[in-house]
Amino acid sequence: MHPASKIHFCGPLYALAAALLWGLVPLYINIVDAANPYEIVAHRALWSGVLLLFFMLITGGMRMVPVVIADRVTRRGFVLSSFLLTVNWGLFVYAVQSGQAIEAALGYFIYPLVAVVLGILLLGENLDRLGWVGVGIVVCGVLAKIGLDGRPPIIGLCLAITFGLYGVARKRMGVDPVMGMFVETLLVMPPAAGYLTWMVYTDQSVFYGGGFFNILLALLAGVITVVPLLLYHAGNRDLPFTTASLLFYANPTTQLCLGIFVFDGAFTLNDGLTFGLIWAGIFIYFASRPKARSVLPTH
Fold it and tell me: What's the longest Cα–Cα distance across the chain?
């Protein structure tokens, strides 16, 4: 297969696989059932770093780390992306644990809209008239949610903005996905380890209450974090930012289904109007993207 053809196929495939795996993360949070959302975030950061460190050692990637972090601008970019990712994790865990899985899904429906706008403003990407129509309909869906509920979806908006900015920060650095994520986890691991140490010092139970099964769940936090992020960055690297972000809609769709059918969340008529407008905007956007259609894998 020609290399260019392979890139066109793998880009959307990676982005879609990442979105589907992310959509299943609420199941993990529900199984863990930890009272402290910060502990889940700490385990995700710590064991992701351990897993990536092992991978970098066996592949010889460690020798490139000093080269990557030698540039001051790049180091600052990693500080920013690590902070944004950690905040996003914490908000998402809180939303699922507090019974707001549907609003979390709404946040990730809003995220690609934020990503499109950020791609235009910060990455120099363009959007034609029909593309703007699709984006406008999505905006109407968000405004309908605010008007019908009488309040803005704070958690959803924060999830969208933090992850949108995270994606832009990483794309602007242009660093290899594995290397970039490893540097991010290096920055997050010390505070994560410090938090878990503080829990032990204050006689709180770590590893989700202890026991063999819960220890395995804590270690699994690294796997469910590393694999989707690597796929996301691989897809984001090979696709236009707007296309990659809109493939991400498989994530909130999966989360929405879990929120309704697994977590028994209430899906009201207001929610139906909101999501209906958002889905209509997505359809119009993709229908007007000949480049987006050309990179999607065929059956």
Answer: 59
Q: Mean pLDDT, to the nearest integer, of 4-10?
A: 52
What pLDDT score was predicted for residue 141?
85
Backbone angle region of 149, left / alpha / beta, with phi > 0 → left and psi within -120 to 50 → alpha: alpha
Neighbours of 128 (CB within 10 A): 9
Please, are residues 29 and 43 in contact by the beta-carbon 8 Å criterion?
no
Per-residue CA distances from 51 to 40, 69, 107, 186 (Å): 16, 20, 29, 11
Whether the CA torsion 252, 257, 258, 263 is positive or negative: it is positive
Structure tokens at 283: 């359809």
DSSP state of 126: -
Q: What is the C-alpha separation between 275 and 18, in angstroms, rounded?
A: 22
| Cβ-Cβ contacts under 8 Å for 59 (sequence gap 6 or more) | none
Contact 32, 208 (CB under 8 A): yes
Q: What is the CA radius of gyration of the chain?
A: 19
